Amino acid sequence: MSASDLLVVRGLVAGYGAAPVLRAIDLTVPAGTIAAVVGANGAGKTTLLRALSGMIRPAAGQVLLAGEDLRGTPVEQLVRRGMAHVPEGRGVISELTVDENLRLGGLWRRDRADAGRALDEVYQLFEPLARRRRHLGHQLSGGERQMLALGRALVGRPRLLLLDEPSLGLAPRVVARTMALLRQLRDRTGLTVLLVEQNVRSALAVADQGVVMSLGRVVIAAPAVQLRDDVDLRHAYLGF
Amino acid sequence: MDRFVFLTVDGLSRGAVYSAFALALVLIWRAARVVNFAQGAMAVAAAYVAYTVSAATGSYWLGFVVAIVAGLLLGALVDRVVMRHVDHASPLNPVIVALGLVLLIQAVLGMVYGSEFRPAEAPFSRSALTVGGLAVLSPYDLFVFATIGVVVSGLAWMFARTPVGLRMRAAAFAPEVSRLLGVNVGGMLTLGWALASGVGALAAMLVLPTELGLHPHAMDLVFVSAFTAAVVGGLDSPPGAVVGGLVVGLVLSYVSGYAGSDLTPLAVLVLLLAVLLVRPGGLFAPVTARRV
After folding, report:
1. Where, by residue number, does the polypeptide cross the bilayer (chain B) (predicted)?
2. DSSP class of B288
3. Residue B288 — very low, low, confident or very high, per pLDDT cuts 50/70/90?
4. Domain residues of chain B, as ranges?
């Protein structure tokens, strides 16, 4: 582990009920990089994110965020440690307005002035949201919900962003825009991203590191370029 | 005509109390998906505390404030000690536990205070003022309207405009996502129970002087009317609860005035049944289905 590693996972075991879904996961994400976790359905990708953010309690193993052990930290405290999790299905609260959803992302912050600045920045970043401040979550298109979910996470100025299937249900054009935005955030603000994807091509195109999961284990963790170019590997694990 | 005006005013005055009590039911339903059948008994318990304080100090207003504080605390206690530990997998579980709480609270009140009626004092005159030969509102009616108006608009403002209100709504709609955004969902739930129980206690303090007085079962009928009001308005809708309360108050007042007061308990149930048959979501059921 080097000082620049923001997220370090060691021997993480977690699941629902008796049978573990994750069997001893090891993973390192350096600060200011994008890691893409790919793998077949049921490989445990979503479970990995849920275990990282404490939504399910790991049975064993360690999760270190900037060297700090997160074990036993309640879910609602993780955002205060700098971890933002955009869950499966994006978690836009349909009954609240765009503005309320976004403000919710910064309510925990003590620095009210900076929370206000972060909110303004998100509105600048996502123009369509600024035009729909008073609309309810359920009135938005898929692309707008995506922006809202991402924007709401960014209002909290996270160090580590966990994204569960950001491309799900979106048009290729919107997916490309989202991936470009992640790269832009990494370069400009040093944001670290761990994203889980079914859409292997676009995930590996944006990522620095590719992590292949299979049946609850990490089978390969390598530079994304290498995964993209290694035909045998793609055939064996990624099916394209 | 005089009689109609009198019955209307009287109906609205009682209806305002039903509104507040129905609002308390809606608050808990929205936060916890539980119909709090123990709310009447909890409110009576708070009113007994107020009675004790008023009797000891001679101050109605001190008792009034103490009732609300006792209501808030009792609500938080019921959530933390009882409801938090009930398995909500079947919606029947919390209902049965709530009914158990009713028996427990009423039995304890009976043991401590006995089960005879005790007079509930009104802070203002209950005799109606006459305007142009027509007997209209009493000073006490005005007090009831004003108090409930302040409470209802205060709650509406809190939910719509304050950070804590936003947290409470978010926690109710999407608990898991809210936790990811740093909201203390358990705390919001307790706060919801406390607020609802506080409003319930207030409603009991307002309605008891117009009833026979203080008794462990004093809120039983009020509860049935308020429950009907909440269903009329749609259990999910706070404005619905307020309008539903006024509607039920008016209906009961007309039935009791024109058809006889023996019929009012029956009228409540007929109204409840009619709403459940015709529009089970309530008159104010939200038009948007939840999409995930």
Report:
1. 12-29, 36-54, 60-83, 95-114, 142-160, 181-208, 214-235, 242-260, 266-287
2. P
3. very low
4. 15-217
**The whole model's pTM is what?**
0.89
- Are residues B180 and A85, on separate chains, in Cβ contact within 8 Å? yes
Give residue for tokens 């394209």. Answer: A240
The residue with tokens 């060691």 is: A10
B169 and A CB contact within 8 Å:
yes
The one-letter code for the residue type at B146 is: A
Q: How far apart are the C-alpha atoms of B135 and B159, rounded to whole Å?
A: 38
Residue B269, token pair as written in the block: 């149930």
A171 and A11 Cβ atoms separated by less than 8 Å: no
* Numbered ranges of CATH 3.40.50.300 in chain A: 1-82+158-240
Residues B276 and B278: their CA atoms lie apart, in Å, by 6
Amino acid (1-letter code) at residue A240: F
Distance to chain B for A37, nearest Cα, Å: 20
Q: Flag whether residue B276 sits within 8 Å of chain A, measured between CB atoms.
A: no
> If you search the block for the tokens 């109605």, which residue do you land on?
B60
Best mutation target among B177, B183, B292 (most A Cβ atoms within 10 Å) is: B177
Q: How far is C-alpha A122 from the geometric centre of its chain's CA atoms?
A: 17
Instruction: Say what the ipTM of the complex is.
Output: 0.92
Nearest to B152 by CA among B83, B77, B233: B233
Q: Which CATH number fits domain A1-82+158-240: 3.65.10.10, 3.40.50.300, 3.30.930.10, 3.20.20.330?
A: 3.40.50.300
A104 touching B (Cβ < 8 Å)? yes
Q: pLDDT tens for residues A81-131? A: 999 999 988 899 999 999 999 999 999 999 999 999 999 999 999 999 999
